[in-house]
Amino acid sequence: MNTKEIRIKFLANAPHSDDLTPGGSRQLLVINPAYWMMKTYHDIHGKSKPQWLIQDFIPDKNVTQTINDLLKNKVNILILPCFVWNIDLQMEIAKAFKERVPTGKVLAGGPQLQAHKDPKFFKKHPYVDFVGYGDGEKSVSNIIDYIATGERGPWVNTVENVGGYAKLWPFEVLRDEKYWSTSPYLTQKDFIREHIKSLKDKGYMNKDIMLAVEFARGCMYSCAYCDWSSNLTNKVTRRKAPYQLELDFFKELDISIRETDANFGQWKQDIEIFDYATSIYDPEKNFKFLVWNTAKLKQNADHFLIGNHETHGKQIVFTFEDTEKVCLEAMQRPSLPWEKQQEMIAKIKHRLGDERFHRATVAELMVGTPKQSIETFKENFRKILGEGIGGTILNHWALLPNSPAADPEYIKKHGIEFIEHKTFSGKDDERPTTPFSIEQLYSDAKQNPHFLSANFVYKTNDMDYTDIMTVLMVGFVLQEPLIKEKILSKSKTNIDRVIEWAFKRCAKNAKEVYSQHKDCIEKFGYIIPITDDPEGIQTSWTTGSLLKFPEMVDA
């Protein structure tokens, strides 16, 4: 193929919402810079000069409209990153594209694909030509040059579709000094500006856009629930580009940024990066740098958490995942001892004061991982409430196919079962018509494209599904202002009584709700969380039916 004829399109199809806030803003759109990084690598090492078209960030067109746009733009290399939120859509687009453009090539990648472990992948998805795994830059560049010239040397990090069979090329960690010292932002400023303009043309404002910036790639740990680097390596590589100039450019773009590092703060330079970004912050502009993932074993998270809150007014999130040593060990999560966590909490509390600390803080916990139980969660809540932390974020454990927990031995050891959940993700007017029964809701969800599917934990050796539901309900109950303001705020001696009461009441409600869904779960093979029932059929998971507790209010 003539290199001048190669036209590349990248469809990010990231999560988004068309709904506007009262202030006219959209849901924050977080941009993944992977496409720009692929282009940077190929600009350095590639032999061909294809045309890199402006990527589509959001799925604001149906499949037919998307294919028509690809045909109009004469796209012949389609790159599709695949995540839990878009995997079905990406495969549908890939299939339709190959039907219309049989000579076109489809490159797929991302943490939701297992082609490097599944020899039958191309039998199930014959319309995909190549799948990248691990670091994707060199893989994509190799494929582009092969398509352009018909020549190739040894490939890496690629699974090739050869007549329906998977040819697996070896894995390697990208260790390219020239690439890692070249800024993918400073070398293609105009290309990035065109991308930001494309979003503004769709109605996004600067304050609606956040860029996810990678300062270090990889994670040195192997948390069971996480798929960092697709669980292929624990090596970490840092970029060496001039961060001050990059931050100046992001400020010029007037958009916010966040890190994508697994352990920001692990290196001294991370603090320098954060402090420089804070020093150039202008409250009249949209640029800001927020840190989400702090280093797990460094005692410096307070530096970023306080900065996020005091400079930008953001909530302080303690990502404990659990507070109990036995649970953390079972999920292979490295963590500071609780006593060290308390020292960090005390620093932030001293800085903010008790009342402000309570309003600003939440603790994030996983729900359903091995060794967790009703009793360990009671202890979690005792510790969190005892420290005056204002709320909790409970994350029902979802299976990531390339995470350590997907290992059959790990699953067997801990008696883990996952089951498909169909979660509504559309707008209110896209919900199914009001069903007359729970069975009708399940039936409607089977055909409704706005219900996204993902596998969540159903049971372990230590928790069944009603236990998991109970914990999630308790999380809702303990957020209720009536409980927080009239009971917990009076005295810490109320904490134990409130926790025992909440678990008792929620366990009863969880059993009732599960009994209503049990037959449909067995019939359809999936679960619809009750929170996705638009009419609150019979009994809700939410706390509406649980707030009759005069005995607690009067205590």
| Number of separate strands | 19
In what range is the share of β-strand residues? Answer: 5-15%
Radius of gyration: 25 Å
Give the proportion of residues in helices. Answer: 25-40%
Count of the separate structural domains: 3
How many angstroms does the end-to-end distance come to?
A: 79 Å
Helix/strand-derived class? alpha/beta
Low-pLDDT residue intervals, each spanning 5 or more residues: 531-555
Mean pLDDT: 90
Main sheet summary: 7 strands, mixed
Principal-axes shape call: globular
Protein architecture, described:
By secondary structure, the chain is an alpha/beta fold. It folds into three domains: 3-24 and 33-180, Response regulator (Rossmann fold, 3-Layer(aba) Sandwich), CATH 3.40.50.2300; 183-314, 2-Layer Sandwich (Transcription Regulator spoIIAA); 315-322 and 360-555, no CATH class. It is 39% helix and 15% strand. The protein has helices at residues 34-45, 63-72, 87-100, 121-124, 137-149, 177-180, 189-200, 243-253, 268-279, 301-312, 325-330, 338-352, 354-360, 374-386, 408-414, 438-447, 465-477, 481-488, 494-524, 550-553, and strands spanning 7-10, 29-31, 51-52, 77-81, 105-109, 130-132, 158-162, 165-168, 209-213, 216-217, 237-238, 256-259, 289-290, 316-321, 361-367, 392-396, 417-424, 451-459, 526-527. Helix 14 links the parallel strand 15 (361-367) and strand 16. Helix 1 packs across helix 5. The longest helix has 31 residues, at 494-524. Residues 531-555 have low confidence and may be disordered.
